[in-house]
Amino acid sequence: MEIIDQVKDEIKKQLLNQKVTDESVAKSMGVSSRTLQRKLKAQKTTFKSLFNEIWLDMANKHIQTKELPLKDVAKLIGFSNLSAFSRAYKRLTGVSPSYAQVEE
């Protein structure tokens, strides 16, 4: 399995149970965080970009289904409150999650 796929899988696992960091992912993969950074750099990516891709994908899936209130979506993907989630979502997508939910 490619390093990018391994990191994405580990982020998904950890996102549901704990605060995800490059250190926590590296530790679970049995490497140092510096080694993980080097391996990702060799693949022309970063931990932050993979992390953002995963949580945004998870958020979008929940936003599209409209089964959960946005505050629950925020908590599910590791944000302490809706405000922090909304700011991060808007920074990455250009729209607020409530606007994205209406548009779907």
TrEMBL record:
Keywords in UniProt for this one? Answer: DNA-binding, Transcription, Transcription regulation
Q: Which Pfam families match?
A: HTH_18
* An annotated Gene Ontology molecular function: DNA-binding transcription factor activity
Q: Does the keyword DNA-binding apply?
A: yes
Q: Which domain of life is it from?
A: Bacteria
Q: Which InterPro entries does the annotation name?
A: Homeodomain-like_sf, HTH_AraC, Tscrpt_reg_AraC-type_HTH
Q: Taking every annotated instance into account, which residue ranges of this chain make up the domain HTH araC/xylS-type? A: 5-103
Per the record, its GO cellular-component terms are: cytosol
Q: Extract the PANTHER family matched here.
A: HTH-TYPE TRANSCRIPTIONAL REGULATOR GADX, HTH-TYPE TRANSCRIPTIONAL REGULATOR VQSM
Q: What is this protein called?
A: HTH araC/xylS-type domain-containing protein
| Organism of derivation | Hydrogenovibrio marinus
